[in-house]
Design a protein that fits this description.
single chain, 204 residues, 5-stranded parallel beta sheet, 4-stranded mixed beta sheet, 8 helices, binds guanosine-5'-monophosphate
Length: 204
């Protein structure tokens, strides 16, 4: 099938904490979602190996040392990192891989993979963000304040991204991201293998 000959697409999805990116991400179809490694504690409702690989600091640092982490950051005093192997394998297989990472990681990935696509999901307002953070009742007041300060700083990086999607209605945000992914996959620059195959078939 010709459509299957397209090249893999790496998508960076960043959003301030509490913006609803997990829900949006869970609704995307046809994508591989990279599962990050973190040293933060598991929240109620989260599953090890699904939401994150929850690991000790010693294990995280060992993986980092062995070159098994593609990019990493320290966020609110905890480590977060993207395991390298799965991302490499999926991209080689021509899949769309989504990394749900914060802005520093987003910048690192853009440098490592200049043809990645970056999307910044914004809340309709900072008040909505604070409300959503409080509603999930998973952080202390101190952590909420810290996440709000980080969120304000992260919003300043939104202009560095290829696309900005507002998460006002979750359905619309999902549709917007799905549309971005669809058109990015159809780009000529990502279809070189497919074109070569068409030419080779015509000549043989
Ligand atoms: P949370 O603790 O709310 O799950 O995540 C905190 C922040 O870390 C979010 O902005 C999330 O996108 C980001 N994050 C999660 N995994 C990774 C990762 O592997 N690398 C980077 N750079 N950021 C990550």
């Amino acid at each position: 099938m010709l459509g299957e000959k397209r090249e893999g697409l790496l998508v960076v999805l960043s959003a301030p904490s509490g913006c609803g990116k997990d829900t949006v991400l869970s609704k995307l179809s046809g994508v591989r979602r990279s599962v990050s490694m973190t040293t933060r504690a598991m929240r109620d409702g989260e599953t090890d190996g699904v939401d994150y690989y929850f690991v000790s600091e010693a294990y995280f640092l060992k993986q980092l040392d062995e070159g098994k982490i593609l990019e990493h950051t320290s966020y609110n005093g905890k480590y977060y990192g993207t395991p390298k192997q799965a991302v490499d394998d999926w991209l080689r297989a021509g899949e769309t891989v989504v990394l749900k990472i914060e802005v520093e990681g987003g910048g690192n990935i853009r440098r490592l993979y200049p043809d990645c696509v970056s999307i910044f999901l914004v809340p309709p307002s900072m008040q909505t963000l604070e409300h959503r953070l409080r509603k999930r009742c998973s952080e202390t007041e101190e952590e909420i304040q810290s996440r709000l300060t980080i969120a304000e700083n992260e919003m300043k990086h939104a202009a560095e991204y290829d696309y900005i999607v507002v998460n006002d209605s979750m359905e619309c945000a999902v549709e917007d991201i799905q549309a971005i992914i669809r058109s990015e996959r159809l780009k000529t620059s990502r279809s070189k293998n497919m074109i070569c195959e068409v030419i080779n078939n015509a000549q043989s």
